[in-house]
Structures are given as structure tokens and as C-alpha cells.
Write a structure and sequence with these properties.
Layout lengths: L1 E6 L5 E7 L2 E8 L5 H16 L8 E5 L5 H18 L3 E4 L1 H6 L8 E7 L4 E4 L2 E4 L2 E4 L4 E4 H7 L5 E4 L2 H13 L3 E3 L9 H13 L18 H13 L1
Parallel strand pairs: 1-4, 4-5, 6-11, 11-12
Antiparallel strand pairs: 1-2, 2-3, 6-7, 7-10, 8-9
């Protein structure tokens, strides 16, 4: 199968194309420009560089969240537009699942964290069991203190944009039980997304683009601020 993958759910942005589990090409950027400035040019450059015939695409994959509200909307809107134009299904993979799959075949607990502001993170927990990465916790939006309490005593590998924000607190509380992925494995990548989407495609786990809904875990900052203003007015 041929999968076109799009990620714009966090600080980084990337697109990739995979054919029968073989990565054909990937563009990745994590530097200043917004996803509205990078995603479509990356898609066009990728298509041009590898001579991609869009009619060969079997499905479009996208990171479904959690993460940046604006980024998720850009990525999902782009993926849905592509899927509808090509008449193919969409495959959504949770952003945290994509991040966790950067870490292969380790006996340590894997904990991706995305900065959710206000001392909170988007997170989940994963373990490799019988050569399969299994999620052992729900996708969560919780305080870093709650997370560290939940994983106390474990050997843990942390990755994600939340590491830069929370590293000192993690190290202070966990000491040498805390491990951090190298920078080139910190972020979610469209190549990993595409690989997971191939597996999902084989299992028949895909949706009509019109029906696809991203996962936010909590309300946006604008929605929360509006609720706070309304409460104050009352």
C-alpha cells in the first residue's frame, strides 16, 4: 500500500511517503516557520522530488492529536482536503503513539510529553512487550507533578517538546532513573506516522475524510479564557 503522511501537531512539521513499508521520502522542519507556511510547500517538494503520482496513494495519514490546536487543525484540514480530492480514506494516529514509536526495543518505560502549558503535559505511557509497543496508559492531559507521581520508581525514557520545559523538574525528582532521548528522536515524524498507518491500513482501521475528528484532550486556551471571562461576569 502507498501512504502519504502529514504531521503538524507539534513544534515540528513533516510529510512523508511510504510504499509497502519502504520509506520513499520525508521532509522535516522544526525551525521558526509556522505549519501554514511549511506543510503545503513540503508536500509539493516531496511530490516533485520523488515523482509521486498522487493517483497511486491508497490513504492519507495524519497525526490526530493531542498537541498544538492550530497545528492539529492545519494538519487535519490538509489531510482531509487531500483525501477528499484523491477519493481515499484517512488514517489518524495519535501524536503520542507516533512519538513513542521513536524508541525501539527498550526495557524501560517510554513517556512522551508535550508541553500543554500551565505546568501540564499531554502524555501517555508505553512498554515493549513481545516485540510490540503497547500503550499502558490512556492519553492524558495532566500536571507534570501528577505524572511524576504516577511513574515514581520506574526507569523512564522521556521524549517530546515537553522535555525542554520540564527537564529540570524531572531530573530533580527522578535522578538517574530519568533518561532522555537524543534530540533527533524527540519529536514525532511523518515517517513513523506513515509506518504505523501502514499497519492500521492492513487492519482496516481507516475513516472517510468527512467523518474524521481529531483528538484534543482539553479545550483550547481561547475557549478556556472565554469560560473564565463568562464566570467572572456572573
Amino acid at each position: 500500500m502507498n501512504i502519504l503522511a502529514i504531521d503538524a501537531s507539534g513544534l515540528s512539521g513533516s510529510v512523508a511517503y511510504i510504499s509497502d513499508y519502504k520509506l520513499v521520502g520525508e521532509y522535516y522542519i522544526c525551525h521558526k516557520l509556522t505549519h501554514s507556511q511549511t506543510i503545503m510547500p513540503m508536500l509539493e517538494h516531496l511530490r516533485s522530488m520523488i515523482g509521486l503520482d498522487l493517483e497511486q496513494v491508497d490513504a492519507v495519514a495524519v497525526t490526530s492529536g493531542p498537541g498544538s490546536f492550530t497545528g492539529i487543525r492545519i494538519g487535519v484540514a490538509t489531510a482531509k482536503a487531500m483525501a477528499l480530492a484523491l477519493g481515499v480514506p484517512i488514517i489518524g494516529i495519535p501524536t503520542l503513539d507516533v512519538m513513542a514509536n521513536n524508541m525501539t526495543f527498550t526495557d524501560k518505560l517510554i513517556c512522551p510529553i508535550m508541553d500543554a502549558r500551565r505546568n501540564q503535559v499531554y502524555t501517555s505511557l508505553y512498554r515493549w512487550k513481545e516485540n510490540t509497543l503497547q500503550r499502558v496508559e490512556e492519553h492524558l492531559a495532566i500536571s507534570i507533578d501528577e505524572l511524576l507521581e504516577k511513574i515514581a520508581g520506574e526507569e523512564v525514557i522521556f521524549l517530546g517538546d515537553g522535555v525542554d520545559v520540564m527537564r529540570s523538574k524531572i531530573t530533580e525528582q527522578m535522578g538517574n532513573k530519568a533518561h532522555f532521548a537524543p534530540s533527533f528522536l524527540h519529536m514525532q515524524r511523518a515517517s513513523v506516522l506513515a509506518h504505523l498507518a501502514c499497519q492500521a491500513y492492513e487492519r482496516g482501521e481507516m475513516e472517510n475524510a468527512d467523518d474524521f475528528v481529531p483528538m484534543y484532550l482539553r479545550k483550547s486556551q481561547a475557549e478556556r479564557e472565554l469560560e473564565e471571562r463568562e464566570k467572572g461576569a456572573n
